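Re: Re: ligand-bound prediction request (bumping)

Still looking for help on this. To restate: I need the protein modeled with flavin-adenine dinucleotide bound, output as structure tokens. Inputs repeated here so nobody has to scroll up.
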Amino acid sequence: MRAGADFSFTEEQLMLRDSVRRFVREQVPEEYARKCDQEKIAPLDTFDKIAEMGWLGIGIPEEYGGAGLGFTELGIVLEELSYGLLELSVLVYRATVHGAQSLLTYGSEEQRRKYLPLIAAGKFKSSMSLTEPNAGSDAAGIQTRAVRDGDYYIINGSKIFNSQVDLATRTVLVTRTDPSLPQHKGMSLFFVDPHSPGVTIRRLDTLCFRSVGTNSVSYDNVRVHKDDLLGELNSGWKHLMTNLTKERFSVAAQVTGAAQNALDCALQYAKDRIQFGQPIGKFQVIQHKLADMQTQVHISRLMTYDLARRLDAKIECRKEASMAKIYTCEAYHRVADEGMQILGGYSMMPDFPMERHYRDSRIMRIGGGSSEVMRTSIAKDLGL
Ligand SMILES: Cc1cc2nc3c(=O)[nH]c(=O)nc-3n(C[C@H](O)[C@H](O)[C@H](O)COP(=O)(O)OP(=O)(O)OC[C@H]3O[C@@H](n4cnc5c(N)ncnc54)[C@H](O)[C@@H]3O)c2cc1C
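Reply:
Sorry for the wait, this slipped through. Here it is.
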């Protein structure tokens, strides 16, 4: 049962939504999601089945082996998968956005022909390697160096919080190629095999994202061929910025699906849990909490698909993307927090998905641009 999840999609989009929903019901039941989280197992078997359904190629043009659909369809897939398990959706997002959209936005034609069909077929996983121990929000301060040596670049440096880099076929590695240029200018992106000699990956023990996980990575004289430069030399920052709205949109879709799951769990519990001789959902204070949760999930969905339509229509939407990232991520955390209150002591146990939502929702206000950084970006767009 879903609380008020309807949205005005076309008939084809509704068919897609229903088929992802059916898939999630059958392949990603709560027991599966719980096992992945509790036992730190990446949902790779389900990722392969998602590839078989053709959903990894949704945003990839047909000439590269994809379905040639738009951001609304991508949002539907990410939202619905996230309803089952947020980290499964994140795995798909890394392939479809960090992988495919990076190639489509700034990859060469040769790189597109080489990699996009593999991404669409599920034979290629991606990750993003930007954050460093001394460069988080201040991402332009990264120090990882790439120095030209004949046909290769030699890479040295350290990254932190690189999610699923251990599973990736290639990671988008952000490096400094010319330290003499101003900070935002001397950066370049490489499509690096994280299993190359000289790369050491160490899994981090984190509160959230325990299934797929996140890692620290060191690069010690790693040789990367010049053909694996993504985009133009020293234009890495510019390239990263062009993909930001797509990333923020994808995050909004993911947290909306996860928040819907948290809401549905709390609603069912409020109907089932008897105290003082009646379901706790009969108490007005619990009803109001659920009404607020429903309102926030609804607004999150509206913001997500408004953004999808802007992206599909190629309308500039940097401010809207930042607003959606803030609102949807904070709404997910509020919904999970109120969900914990409604489930009372039982919320603390993994028998219900709420404690996972509570943990996973916390990172969404920090990762991929914190709420503070988003607000600063909106303020800039307001001319402040
Ligand atoms: C589980 C997890 C997964 C992640 N996955 C990835 C990944 O796959 N790839 C990747 O590259 N990175 C990843 N990250 C990194 C994530 O994007 C960073 O943690 C985030 O950008 C914040 O950087 P920081 O942690 O260094 O915090 P800091 O930048 O040190 O910020 C600390 C606090 O100060 C605030 N702050 C900083 N600057 C300002 C400012 N100018 N104005 C107001 N407030 C400010 C921040 O909002 C925050 O509240 C992940 C992180 C986690 C925890």
